[in-house]
Amino acid sequence: MLNLALAMLFFVGIHFLISGTSLRDRLVAYRGEQAFRAAFSVLSLLALGWVVFAYRQAPYVETWGQLTGFKPIAAVLMLVSFIFVVAGLTTPNPTAVSGESVLNDAEAARGILRITRHPFLWGLSLWALVHVIANGDVAALLLFGSLLALCLAGTRSIDAKRRRTYGDRWERFAAATSNVPFMAIKEGRNRLELGEIGWQRLGIAVALYLAMLHFHAKIFGVSPLF
User: Fold this and answer.
1) Same domain assignment for residues 206 and 102
2) Which residue intervals define the domain NnrU in the entry (predicted)?
3) 122 and 29 in one domain?
4) Could you tell me which residues come within 8 angstroms of residue 18 by beta carbon, excluding any fewer than 6 positions away?
């Protein structure tokens, strides 16, 4: 369990202390954007490999235990998570790497961005939260709880980085959307347009979700339904 705790500390630490901080800005100024991205990607992949290895080796130490009654709720939440992740990865977004050109659009906050400007990270947050609740053990709490904290903090870190870099262009975009899902719609700064998300994106999300339901037990040894 110590190995997993150290792996998560390293993985989360490199994101909190480097990505989105002023240290990142200095490293980019020193070595260039592309060199920084390449080096950080390699470091992140190495850290992720350590995390996966440590999690697979960690013993099962029960906290509240596996909650069978939560599985129907988890199944619904995971569908929402898949939609957010797929739409987030396929929708042009100025919060994404090399997505800053979207800030030049007259109406940049469209589709899933009307709901949140961080759909991918909110999708991952929901995925992590579901697994924290459903697994009910210390290893899952360390892994998924840390990822949940990282994703939620990451939304604020990205906002701060984009604000420093793009100034008024970013502020115009941020005013038309929100970090917290549906907040901009609730406050009247945007409107819900489900059709803009795209039926193709929804179809891909549902297909991947159904594949997850089918293969989850074979890959991870636990059925998400029973």
Assistant:
1) yes
2) 4-224
3) no
4) 24, 27, 40
Grouping H, G, I as helix, E, B as strand and the rest as coil, residue 110 is: coil
- 52 and 71 co-located in one domain: no
Tell me how many degrees the CA angle 81-222-154 measures, rounded to the nearest 5. 30
How far apart (Å, rounded) are the C-alpha atoms in residues 125 and 110?
21
CA-nearest of 8, 23, 20, 167 to 100 is 167
- Token pair, residue 174, equals 């941020």
Round to whole Å and give the CA distance between 225 and 66.
Answer: 12
Q: 164 Cβ partners below 8 Å, 6+ apart? A: 25
Given 38, 58, 78, which residue is the final one in a domain? 58
68 and 1 in a common domain: no
Residues 160 and 109 in one domain: yes
Q: Which domain holds residue 93?
A: 62-220
pLDDT per residue rounded down to tens, the chain (226 residues): 889 999 999 999 888 877 766 777 777 777 777 888 888 889 899 999 999 999 999 998 999 988 888 989 999 999 999 999 999 999 999 998 877 888 888 788 899 999 999 999 999 999 999 999 999 899 999 999 999 999 999 999 899 888 888 899 999 999 999 999 999 999 999 999 989 999 999 999 999 999 999 898 888 888 887 7
Q: How far apart are CA 198 and CA 87, in angstroms?
A: 8
Question: Are 138 and 35 contained in the same domain?
Answer: no
* pTM above threshold 0.70: yes
82: how many CB neighbours lie within 10 A of its CB?
23
